[in-house]
Design brief:
The complex is a heterodimer of chains A (about 375) and B (about 260). Chain A is α+β, with helices and mostly antiparallel strands and about 375 residues long. Helices cover about 40% and strands about 10% of the residues of chain A. By secondary structure, chain B is an alpha/beta fold. Classes of the chains: A alpha+beta (about 375), B alpha/beta (about 260).
Amino acid sequence: MAASSSRCVRLILWKYGSCGKNFCLSRSRTTSQLPVRQICVSSSLWKKNLAAAGPQKFTQEFIDKQVEEFEIGKRHLANMMGEDPETFTQEDVDRSIAYLFPSGLFEKHARPVMKHPEQIFPKQKAVQWDAEGRPFHFLFYTGKQSYYSLMHDVYDKMLVVEKHQDKMRNKGLFMADTKQISLSGSRWLLKEEMEEILVENISDQDYLRFIQLAERLLSMPYCSLEEEFILKFRKPLEVQSRNQEIPVLQHDARGVAFSVADGRRKSAKARITLIDSGSGNITINGTNYLRYFPVLQDREQLMFPLHFVGLLGRFDIEGSVEGSGRSSQAGAVRLAISRALLSFVSEGEVEKMRQAGLLTADPRIKERKKPGQEKARKKFTWKKR
Amino acid sequence: MAAGVLTRVKQALRGPRLAAAVFSCHGQTLSSAAAAVHSPAAPTIETDATDKILNFPLTQPDYFRLSELFSIKDLFDARVHLGHKKGCRHALMEPYLFGCRLDMDIIDLEQTVDHLQQALNFTAHVAFRGGVVLFVSRRRQFAHLVETTARDCGEYAHTRYWKGGLLTNAPVQYSPGVRLPDLIVFLSTLNNVFQEHVGIRDAAKMNIPTVGIVDSNCNPSLITYPVPGNDDTPAAMEMYCRLFKMTIKRAKDKRRQMELLKGI
């Protein structure tokens, strides 16, 4: 009976599946299993859909194995080069590889490389749930757990401050003008810096909301309770004037202080000596400044740095200038005077001078003439036809 | 001829488990047939104990004694019976309303007690079996409270903007192999624009049971365990959070206790 049934089944299958491939139907198996009908499919269904797979994922074991192989390989390489395996650094590895596998390829990334697997395989986010599948973080299902956890913490701090306020009000000790957190000299962290801290991407609106919440916390009277927490998200601004090079203050035979500084503008070069306890005499290239700079505008340029710091009549200026025209020479001398003045002036004044633009060299030069035009900007006469 | 063959195939195939597959001899249900065939595992002491832990609580109506956590008076004091105005009433909520006084809907607390009892019992059983519970609420007033409740009982919360495919497109939104919540508790079923929260529909699509506090302007249709009650008053919300926290903690403590007793 079993044999006849199997024969009949095979007849039916032959009718339906004759265009398909080989049958995997054996006599012994028909009794316990359903007959398998092979459906003919095109090869496009076998091919892996590479685009849908996404970036390749590496398991932690694979990465650990690669790290092991790298360490062993590094020791072998050190032995090959005749160096000590213990003190074989990455630079030595790079040097050895460049020696053993010389490559003339222009693209540096295409050359043979032997680096730690951490730098080669892209970093992947660690698995965020335990063995049973329960996520570690309580806000995991929101999608942005670090960001929302941060917002939750900031709100926690706000509630603490409010509670403290209410307590003070109850006791009758509430004062609106308590110690405020000083925010000058620091700025909020940028969105990119926040992303680095949170290790996840946030949108512009998310960042704005965070800043708004933090500002609201700072607007409360007793916010100094959470000063430490808030200052974690503020970055101190570098005082630019610290980078300024101040010329050395020298003293001549009589003990009078003086300083020397250079200045440039277009192709004019100036060298100025600023002498203390003078009476405001200015000598350029051996002649009086009234003779050398007949135009008022140029003399005003010389005056400006001293007028700005309020030390007009204190110094005697002696110097030489060459090159370019009268206006550029005046600008070069002005820069030189400002630089020389730095050694006589306090740090706060230095920052003020920097913000006034006295210490910045004017980068403007003559714009080149372009082909197809008369001059740098002037075009040839435009003819309609 | 075909019918004859069919009957012969039926006789030839042994085992009642494969009977379902016989009706289509084209082999389409072969996979289900293969899954149905399982070899019975040898019963060990461990599986017995685990079965007892898992099956025994289901035989009792109130295994975790949750009826002693709240009474009608507590609900009344927390102003759970206060609904919205008559104009805001949802047609499907009418069975749950006690009446209307000065245009204001009053929710029937006797029904609420029954529904809340069932909802808490279900939550307790889910937590007892180590399920993932997700608290959802889109009310800004109570977002912090809900998140704190979830963190305190070791479960999860989502009180932020609900992104489109969180449940329906989970392998893409999170990573492949993520475990979806086993129960979603809506402490407020409406979102900020007074429309039904998308999570209710998505949970129904993904066969995830839901517990929801439905006010008189909410739609109780797709929620597995609706609890008619007020979701606007801080007192009522604090009470719900306290109740859910206590149930989940009780259930988890009970589980730990039983596992220690059975020596697992």
